[in-house]
């Protein structure tokens, strides 16, 4: 085996998820990540605006909760396929966002009615599409 072998590939990814203490959909998203091999630490806070500001999330791209994983900010209910893409490609960006709380997204109820457009944002405030899922 190469250095690390298969154990390295199977190693869980650590996520810190900041959420409003009363929000249930955020718990649903944390469970979704756990069921997809991530280790999630949930940190309830009443100051989500501060967390978002400290992590450079543009106001217009705010989601329900803010996650930190692999040196990136992941805003909202981003599907795990896009999260895995981010962590394997390692682009030079601050993070990604699925703005708002779209119905049918991971952790949310309802039915998905359109593709999810995930955006990327950089430290300089530049925003552009990252993935569609």
Largest sheet: 7 strands, mixed
Span of the ends, CA to CA: 34 Å
Spans of 5+ residues with little confidence (pLDDT < 50)? 1-11
Per DSSP E runs of 2 or more residues, the count of β-strands stands at 7
Strand order of the largest sheet: 2-1-3-4-5-6-7
Structural class: alpha/beta
Rounded average pLDDT? 88
**β content, as a range?**
25-35%
Written account of the structure:
26% of the residues lie in helices and 29% in strands. The protein has 133 residues and is an alpha/beta fold. The chain has a 7-stranded mixed sheet, with helices on both faces. Helix 4 (80-89) links the parallel strand 4 (72-76) and strand 5 (95-98). The longest helix is centred in the N-terminal third of the chain and has 12 residues, at 24-35. The protein is globular, with a radius of gyration of 15 Å. The N and C termini lie far apart (34 Å). Mean pLDDT is 88; it is low at 1-11.
């Amino acid at each position: 085996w190469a250095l690390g072998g298969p154990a390295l590939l199977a190693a869980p990814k650590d996520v810190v998820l900041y959420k409003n203490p009363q929000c249930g959909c955020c718990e649903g998203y944390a469970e979704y990540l756990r069921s997809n091999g991530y280790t999630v630490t949930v940190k309830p806070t009443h100051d989500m605006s501060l967390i978002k500001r400290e992590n450079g999330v543009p106001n217009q791209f705010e989601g329900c909760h803010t996650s930190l994983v692999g040196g990136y900010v992941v805003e909202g209910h981003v599907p795990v396929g896009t999260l895995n893409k981010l962590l394997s490609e390692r682009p030079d960006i601050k993070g990604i966002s699925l703005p708002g709380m779209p119905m049918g997204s991971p952790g949310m109820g309802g039915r998905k009615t359109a593709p999810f457009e995930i955006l990327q944002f950089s430290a300089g405030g530049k925003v552009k599409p990252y993935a569609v899922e």
